[in-house]
Amino acid sequence: MQLEDLEVVLKVAKFRSITAAAAHLDMRVATASAALKRVETALGAELFIRTTRHLRLSSVGERYIPQCEQALLMLEQARQNMQDDMDVVEGELRLSLSSDLGRNIAMPWLDEFVEDHPKVSLKLHITDSNIDFFRDSVDIALRYGSPKDSHLYGFKICNVPTLLCATQEYLNEYSIPQHPQDLALHNGLFYQLYDVIHDVWKFSRDEQEFKIKMHGNRASNDGDLVRRWCVAGKGLAIKSSLDMSNDLLSGRVVSVMPDYQPRQTELWLICPSRQLITPAVRLLRDHLRNKSMKILSKLVERKFILKSSLE
């Protein structure tokens, strides 16, 4: 039996479907079916009971599948331990990125990383929705906010100040807000997640907190689109300073009410298993830290953010 065939069997057991397993593994259904047949032939027993509509584990399968899964995990751990010892930087990185950070900031960083490590390949998943590592077929995710799931493993990349931004043209037309209460006269550009519009904006100054219910005529579940609306002068947006860095440094947008700080965030590289933390992932972590801090340092130099906010 080949390891690839056993991996197919485990996916069939997980999804209770040859078709779903084939789709997850990016192979034809006939290929997955043939792999399952080879394993059952080698064992001399059927692992699954098939009907026209359903597939379930046989009594043999119920005993065999957990042992098979454990054996493959041990083999994968042994392979990774060997690569760690040899410091081998290779393999496929299946990485999830948020839309704005991924498309406009991180993409050149990742291109440079692959050029420096030609044995590494990338498979990118761009989405602003919450990640399900198994459903979305990704191994690692670059995300704002620390992981709340205790089963996840992560590396903090950096602290990221958030900013209230607008174009100078918009402010010239609608006035420059000096206090959070002034925002009632302005148009908000909102991020939306699962039909929840984030239109309550919070600010702090000198240990005082301000909560403002905003009004606006645009909302999207795509953070990149919210940024584009802001750059086009459609209103005010609260965005990560990393996401807005190119626009800030080029003068396309300005920071508004810098004395009133929106909620700060952090950038994390997270994964569902310690076994996925390969030499390539650790090098990627270091690469992302270096690139992020270079941009944030430029924002400090231009006084868009405070140095203390990065500590």
Concise account of the structure shown:
This protein has about 300 residues and is an alpha+beta fold. It has helices at about 5-15, 20-25, 30-45, 60-85, 100-115, 170-175, 225-230, 245-250, 280-300, and strands at about 50, 55, 90-95, 120-125, 140-145, 155-160, 160-165, 190-195, 195, 200-205, 210-215, 220, 235-240, 255, 260, 265-270.
What's the layout of helices and strands?
Elements (H helix, E strand, L loop, with lengths): L2 H13 L2 H7 L4 H15 L4 E3 L4 E3 L1 H28 L4 E7 L1 H18 L3 E7 L13 E5 L8 E8 L1 E5 L1 H7 L14 E5 L2 E2 L2 E6 L2 E6 L4 E3 L2 H9 L5 E4 L4 H6 L3 E3 L4 E2 L2 E7 L7 H23 L10
Helix pairs in contact: 1-2, 1-3, 1-4, 2-3, 5-7, 5-9
What does this structure look like?
There is one protein chain. By secondary structure, the protein is α+β, with helices and mostly antiparallel strands. It folds into three domains: 3-85, Winged helix-like DNA-binding domain superfamily/Winged helix DNA-binding domain (Arc Repressor Mutant, subunit A); 92-156 and 269-310, 3-Layer(aba) Sandwich (D-Maltodextrin-Binding Protein, domain 2); 162-263, Periplasmic binding protein-like II (D-Maltodextrin-Binding Protein, domain 2, 3-Layer(aba) Sandwich). It is 41% helix and 24% strand. It has helices spanning 3-15, 18-24, 29-43, 59-86, 99-116, 168-174, 223-231, 245-250, 279-301; strands at residues 48-50, 55-57, 91-97, 120-126, 140-144, 153-160, 162-166, 189-193, 196-197, 200-205, 208-213, 218-220, 237-240, 254-256, 261-262, 265-271. It has a five-stranded mixed β-sheet with strand order 4-3-5-16-6, covered by helices on one side. The chain has a three-stranded antiparallel β-sheet with strand order 13-7-14. A three-stranded mixed β-sheet has the order 9-8-12. Strand 8 and strand 9 (196-197) form a beta hairpin. It is elongated. The model has no long low-confidence stretch (mean pLDDT 90).
